[in-house]
Amino acid sequence: MRNLTLLLLLLLGSHLISVLSWKKDEFRTCHQTPFCKKARTRKPGFSSLVADDVRISDGELTAKLLPKQNPDQDEALVKPLILSLSVYEDGIVRLKIDEDPKLDPPKKRFEVPDVILPEFDQKKLWLQRFSKETNDGESSVVYLSDGFEAVLRHEPFEVYVREKGGKRVVSLNSHGLFDFEQLKEKQEGDDWEERFRGHTDSRPFGPQSISFDVSFYDSDFVYGIPEHASSFALKPTRGPGVEESEPYRLFNLDVFEYIHDSPFGLYGSIPFMISHGKTRGTSGFFWLNAAEMQIDVLGSGWDAESFISLPSSQSRIDTFWMSEAGIVDTFFFVGPGPKDVVRQYTSVTGRPAMPQLFATAYHQCRWNYRDEEDVENVDSKFDEHDIPYDVLWLDIEHTDGKRYFTWDRVLFPHPEEMQRKLAAKGRHMVTIVDPHIKRDDSYFLHKEASQKGYYVKDATGKDYDGWCWPGSSSYPDILNPEIRSWWADKFSLENYVGSTPSLYIWNDMNEPSVFNGPEVTMPRDALHQGSVEHRELHNAYGYYFHMATSDGLVKRGDGKDRPFVLSRAFFAGSQRHGAIWTGDNTAEWEQLRVSVPMILTLGLTGMSFSGADVGGFFGNPEPELLVRWYQIGAFYPFFRAHAHHDTKRREPWLFGERNTELIRDAIHMRYMLLPYFYTLFREANTSGIPVARPLWMEFPSDEATFSNDEAFMVGNSLLVQGIYTERAKHTSVYLPGKESWYDVRTGAVYKGGVTHKLEVSEDSVPAFQRAGTIIPRKDRFRRSSTQMVNDPYTLVIALNSSQKAEGELYIDDGKSFAFEQGAYIHRRFIFSDGKLTSSNLAPAAQGRAQFSTECVIERIILLGHSARPRSALIKPEDKNTEVELGPLLMKPRLGSGLVTIRKPNVPVAGDWSIKLL
Predict the structure, then answer these.
(1) pLDDT-based confidence at 4, cuts 50/70/90?
(2) How confident is the model at residue 22 (pLDDT cuts 50, 70, 90)?
(3) DSSP conformation letters of 609-641
(4) The pairing of beta strand 711-714 with beta strand 718-721
(5) What CA–CA distance (Å, rounded) separates 337 from 283?
(6) Residue 890 has what pLDDT?
(7) Beta bridge partners of 170
C-alpha cells in the first residue's frame, strides 16, 4: 500500500496531497464565489417584482412576476417570470418560479428529476378559486388545510403560509431579497469565465443564480441543511454581534479530516430547514435544487435599517438562501409538530428504506483487510473474544488495481469461498465500488462505457478525464436512466465475478471526488445528458449513483432481496436507497461530540440510517476515546468501526483485557436492543420519523431541550448522553418531562424535568429508559444477528406514575420485501391496572402474505412497580407463572431486586394477557 501511495503522490503531485488533509485554501469561500458574494451585498427591499395576471390554471394559482413599472423602461426587454403555487394534502405548499418557456430562453433550466415521489402528485388539491384581500396591499388567498391558508401578496411580491386569518408560519421574500438571473445569449465583450486556483469555468450561459429570504415565525431555533460538522441548532452567520462568518454551504465535496464547528459543506446536501419554537411548534422549508447553495441564518436586528414592516407580535428567524443555478421549486410544511414536519417532508421525497436486519447490527471495517488470511483471522478473533458482529468490509485494495467489480487474485484468490465461510456464521461482506472508472482499454467496464458513450463529457464534448485512486479516470453519466440501468446490471452474480448473494456494496468518493479537479471535484461546466451542466446537478450526482447501485442489488435478487448500500454523498431522497455515514472524521474527542448533532440533523432531514466511523477514521485513538466511541456508537442507527490504512490496527481485542471487556459490553448492548432498533427502523420506513431523535422531538414544549445536542433519544423510549471529555469524573444529564427515568443497566430511578449531576463510570455512557414505555430485547448472545432470529424475547416495562406503560414490537423475515405484502408481525404491549396485554397492530391478514414465528417471551421485567406480586395469571391459557426478584441485565449481572415474570413463554405473535396477582 505504501509503495502504491508513493506512486500516486508522484503521479498526482500537489493535487493528491491536498486531499489528504484539511486545507482551507483548496476550497472557495463565499467571497471567492461570485453569486454568493453578490447576493450578500443586497439590502432588504432590493426586489421590485410584482405579481400580475393572477389566476387559477390546472388547479394551481399562477401569476407573472414583473419588475415594478418604470416610465423609462423598454417593455420589450422585460421578461416576466412564471409563478405557480399548488397545495397538497397534509398541509404542504409547493411554489415554483421559472423563466417563461414561450420567450425562448437560451436553454431550459434544470429541474431535478427522480427525487419527488411519483405518487406525491396524486395528493394535489386542485384549486377551484381564490379569494382576494386588500388590507396591506392586494393579496390572493387559497385554502391549504383545516386551519391554514397560502397567500400570494401582489406588490411587493411575497408568498407566505398562515394560520387561517391570523399568524404567519413561513414566508418567502418578506424582506424583498428575491433575485433571479435569467439566462442570456453571450454577446461580444461578455466575460463570464470564473477562475479559481488554476481552474477556469467557462460558464457558457452566464450568471444564472437565484436568491431569496425565508422567514420562520414564532421560532426559537432552526435546524437541518446537512451536511456540516457543527452544532445541531444552526448559529447565526450574519447580523449585529455575529462574528463575520461564512454561510452554511451545501456543495458535496471530498473533505479529508474535516474540522468541527464549521459551516463548511461536506459530503452531502439536503436543502431542508426545520424551525421549532415553544409558542407555535414546528414548520419546514425545502428547496429542490441540486446546484451549489449557500444559506445565511440572519441574527436578530440584521434588518434594523430596512424600514420593512413585518408582524411585530411574532418573533421570527430570517434566513437567506442563495443558489448558483436551477429554478425555484420550494415546499412549505406547516407541521405543527416536529413529527408532522418530518412526515410531510418524507411524503414528498420518500420514506427511509427498510434495512435488512443484519445491516442494523455491528459492522467491522478497515482500509484495508489485507488478504483472505487477514479476513479469516479477524473473523475468528471475534468468536474467540465472544464479540458479535455481522459484516466485514473490504476497501479499495481488494480490487485488481482499483478496477471495481474485480479482485486482486493474489490477495483474494477465492472470494466466493471467503464469503461463504462468513455466511455460514450468518455474517455478510461489503465491498467498495466507487464511481471513478479506470481509463484502461483492457478493463471491461471502461471499454464498454467508452463504446456506449456513457461517460460525463468535458466542456468540449470529450469524455471527462480526471484523477482519482486508479489514476486517470472517467465517470458514468448517472443522471441518465439508461446508464443507471446499465450500471445496475453490473451487480448481477454473472457480471460481478467473485460475488455471492451475501455480498453488499459501499459507494465512496461519489460527490464525485476528482483529485485534480476544482475544489477536488468535477468542473462545473462538465456536461451530462441533455446538455445539463454539472453545476446544475452536482449535489445530486452521488444520489443517482447510490440509486443505481441499490437498484442493482434489487435486480440481483430478482426483486426479493432488500439491498444494503452505504453512500458517502447524499441528497434529498437518498433515504430511499440506503445508509450514509459522516465521512472521514478524526480520532479526537471533539469529533466524537460533533457526531451526535450531525446524526441528529441527518435524521431530521430524512436520513434515518446514518452513523459516524467509530474510533475516528484518521489518527490513533487512545483506548479511553475508542471505548467511549463504541459506547455511544452502539446507539447510532448505523454502527460501524472504520480506520485509515496508516493507523494502527484497532480491532476490539487489541487494547488489553479490560478495554476488550468494555467494548464487548457496548456491542452486546446493541445486539440486546436489536428488536427495539428494528421496530424503530420500521417506524421510520412508514412515517419518516427518525431512529435517533433530538430530545425536543419527544418533548416539543420543553425549552431546555431545544439546543441540547449532547444527548439524544433512540425512539421514544431511550435517552443517551455521551461522554465527550477525557478522564471525566462527572457529567450533567438533563432528563426532560414530568415522569421518571430508569438507568438501562441498573434500573436506578431518576426524576424527570431536572438536570442530574452523575458520577461517570468507565462501564458505559449514561442511558435511561423513559417511564411509561416498554422495550423489547433479546438477551442471548450469538455470533451474529441472524443467529438470534429464533431466540426468545425479554420485555422491559418502565412504569410511570400511573403504573402504566406501552410499547411496540415489529418482526418480519429480516431480509425480503415480503413485508410490503403484509408478511410481518406488529404487536402493541400495554401495561395498565396490573395487567400486561398483547394486541395486534397489523392490518387484517386476509389476502395478504403471511409471516410467522415460534418465538416466545421468556422474561418480563418491571421497573418502578409499587407492589410485590407473588405470581401472575396468563390468559387465555389460565396458567399461573412465577414472579421473582431478578436482575435487569444478565451479563454483566446488574440491577438486582426487580420484579420479574420468569418464563411466561407466551407467543410473541399471539393475543394474550398476564395479570399480576
Answers:
(1) very low
(2) low
(3) SEE-EET-SBS---HHHHHHHHHHHTTSSSEEE
(4) antiparallel
(5) 8
(6) 81
(7) 161, 216
Phi, psi of 281 (to 5 degrees): 115, -130
Helix H or strand E encompassing 52: strand 49-57
Residue with the three cell numbers 419518516:
688
Pairing status of strand 793-798 against strand 856-863: parallel
Check residue 256 and give its pLDDT.
83
Q: Please, is 526 exposed, middle or buried when counting C-beta atoms within 10 Å of its C-beta (0-12, 13-18, 19+)?
A: buried
Contact 898, 888 (CB under 8 A): yes
C-alpha dihedral over 255, 259, 263, 267, to 10 degrees? 30
Pairing of strands 912-916, 871-875: antiparallel
CA-closest candidate to residue 227, choices 606, 563, 548: 606
Non-local (6+) Cβ contacts of 95 within 8 A are 83, 84, 85, 159, 172, 328, 329, 330, 331, 332
| Cα distance between residue 375 and residue 702, in whole Å | 49
Half-sphere exposure at residue 765, Cβ-oriented, CA atoms within 13 angstroms: 31
3-class state of residue 893 by DSSP: strand
How high is the pLDDT of residue 74?
Answer: 53
Cell, residue 826: 406488529
Give the Cα separation of 597 and 610 in Å (integer): 12
Q: Are 28 and 17 in contact (CB under 8 A)?
A: no
**pLDDT above 80 for 383:** yes
Residue type, position 489, single letter: D
CA 569 to chain centre: 10
Across 661-785, the runs of DSSP E, i.e. the strands, are 692-693, 711-714, 718-721, 730-735, 741-743, 749-750, 754-759, 767-770, 773-777
The per-residue DSSP string of 580-599 comes to: EE--S-BSSHHHHHHHHHHH
Instruction: Give 533-542 pLDDT, tens digit per residue.
Output: 999 999 999 9
Q: Name which of 322, 323, 319, 314 is nearest 291 in CA terms.
A: 323
Q: What is the pLDDT of residue 73?
A: 52
Q: At what angle do helices 674-687 and 338-349 cross, to 10 degrees?
A: 70
Cis ω before 207 (30° cut-off from 0): no
> What is the C-alpha to C-alpha distance for residues 438 and 425, in angstroms, rounded to an integer?
35
Q: Which residues contact 249 (CB under 8 A, 6 or more apart)?
A: 30, 228, 263, 264, 265, 292, 293, 294
pLDDT digits (tens, 9 = 90+) for 232-265: 999 999 998 888 789 999 999 999 888 888 999 9
Task: Quote the mean pLDDT of the chain.
Answer: 94
- The helix/strand/coil state of 663 is helix
Three-state DSSP at 238 gives strand
Cβ atoms 582, 601 nearer than 8 A: no
- Please state whether the predicted TM-score (pTM) of the whole model is above 0.70: yes
Q: What is the pLDDT at residue 71?
A: 47
Give catalytic residue positions: 508, 511, 584
- In this prediction, residue 12 carries a pLDDT of 42
Q: What are the tens digits of pLDDT across the range 321-359?
A: 999 999 999 999 999 999 999 999 999 999 999 999 999
Say if CB 434 and CB 404 are below 8 A apart: yes
**Could you give the C-alpha distances from 545 to 31, 61, 487, 568, 871, in angstroms and in order?**
31, 36, 9, 11, 58
Helices (H), 471-563: 481-489, 534-537, 541-556
Q: Name the DSSP class of 413.
A: S
Supply the pLDDT for residue 425: 97
pLDDT of residue 716: 98
Q: Does the CA dihedral 334-339-344-345 come out positive or negative?
A: positive
With vertex at residue 93, the alpha carbon angle to CA 90 and CA 99, rounded to the nearest 5 degrees, is: 155
